[in-house]
Design brief:
By secondary structure, the chain is an alpha/beta fold. It has 2 domains: about 10-125 and about 290-300, Rossmann fold (3-Layer(aba) Sandwich); about 125-285, Rossmann fold, CATH 3.40.50. Helices cover about 45% and strands about 15% of the residues. The protein has helices spanning about 15-30, 50-60, 70-75, 80-90, 105-110, 125-140, 155-170, 185-200, 210, 230-240, 245-250, 280-300, and strands at about 40-45, 65-70, 95-100, 115-120, 150, 170-175, 200-205, 215-220, 255-260. Helix 1 packs across helix 6 (about 125-140), helix 2 (about 50-60) crosses helix 12 (about 280-300) and helix 4 crosses helix 5. The radius of gyration is 19 Å and the shape is globular.
Length: about 300
């Protein structure tokens, strides 16, 4: 039976921890041909650097092949119905990694595809980013449960997946945003259930300094995501007091880590030069997208031997 990854909620705590361990082994062991003969379709509505390159290299280094499908080539939901695209691709490939504007598009793809569908980013979640981030934190801290992570900024797709992932594995999660940009109930409800089971503590606040105090990880992301360009001026005004800089980081623990999924807007959500700060592990995060996604592809594609109708 095929398995999709549309949301962090599709995974158990054990599955997340197993993926991290497998990614570590893959990172140490180099390339493998375990997915020889497998083909992954990259179905993208949005442009990408890290997501495209890391998935393409991941399947290649595992012995498989990648096909990139641009928005112009497919016209997902416009030139051709999403359900039809799913059924056609299922006749050709072994998996689909889709980067879409809408979570609903992913759900339709998964409903009609007979091969695994991976959320490579939607408006609601970015699970591959969050899983890679946990791998990076584990590498640096040697544990996950009991750590405190402060996310400063917008309740975007990265924040949503990171919130769910943190609560699933027992990381205390603090979220600081301006009024009107809080985590939505759609994410908050399952996160609270995960936290109850794992012992994770949740703090939601409008004060970024309260969130950062004694945190072991400080995380931020852009204030204006793709598709929100019309709100740029409004958002920059709302988030002007939420920049991660030396003043804010000084409240975190001395050995705190700074994280950002990239691309970064220097002088907006981060102070200039912060990516080069000794506390920054931003480029380790970017590298680990490759290793985590290799583990993910092995789990989803090798376990899904479906017959193409």
């Amino acid at each position: 039976m095929k398995k999709d990854l549309l949301s962090i909620s599709d995974l158990t705590r054990k599955e997340v921890e197993d993926l991290i361990k497998q990614a570590q082994r893959t990172k140490r062991g180099g390339t493998s041909s375990i997915l020889a003969g497998k083909t992954l379709a990259l179905l993208f509505e949005k442009p990408s650097l890290r997501t495209r390159v890391s998935f393409d290299l991941a399947i290649y280094q595992l012995g498989g092949h990648c096909i990139y499908l641009s928005p112009e080539e497919v016209g997902l939901g416009k030139r051709e119905a999403v359900s039809d695209v799913a059924r056609v691709l299922s006749r050709y490939v072994d998996g689909i990694a889709a980067r879409t504007f809408s979570q609903g598009t992913l759900e339709i793809l998964a409903q009609h595809a007979s091969v695994p569908v991976i959320n490579a980013l939607s408006d609601l979640e970015h699970p591959c980013q969050a899983l890679s981030d946990l791998l990076t934190i584990y590498e640096k801290k040697g544990k996950l449960s009991g750590l405190t992570l402060a996310f400063i900024g917008d309740s975007n797709n990265v924040a949503n997946s990171l919130f769910l992932c943190a609560c699933l594995v027992g990381i205390n999660f603090r979220f600081a945003s301006p009024p009107g940009y809080e985590i939505k109930e759609q994410i908050l409800s399952p996160a609270r259930k995960f936290a109850t089971a794992s012992g994770s503590q949740i703090l939601l606040t409008h004060d970024p300094y309260e969130a950062a105090k004694e945190a072991e990880v400080v995380y931020t992301d852009v204030w204006v995501s793709m598709g929100q360009e019309a709100e740029s001026e409004k958002r920059r005004g709302a988030f002007s007091g939420y920049q991660v800089n030396e003043k804010l980081l000084s409240l975190a623990r001395k050995d705190a880590l700074f994280m950002h999924p990239l691309p970064a807007h220097h002088g907006e959500e981060i102070s200039p030069g912060l990516l080069d700060d000794p506390r920054s592990i931003v480029f380790d995060q970017a590298e680990n997208r490759l290793h985590l996604q290799k583990a993910l592809l092995v789990n989803l594609l090798s376990a899904s031997e479906v017959s193409r109708r």
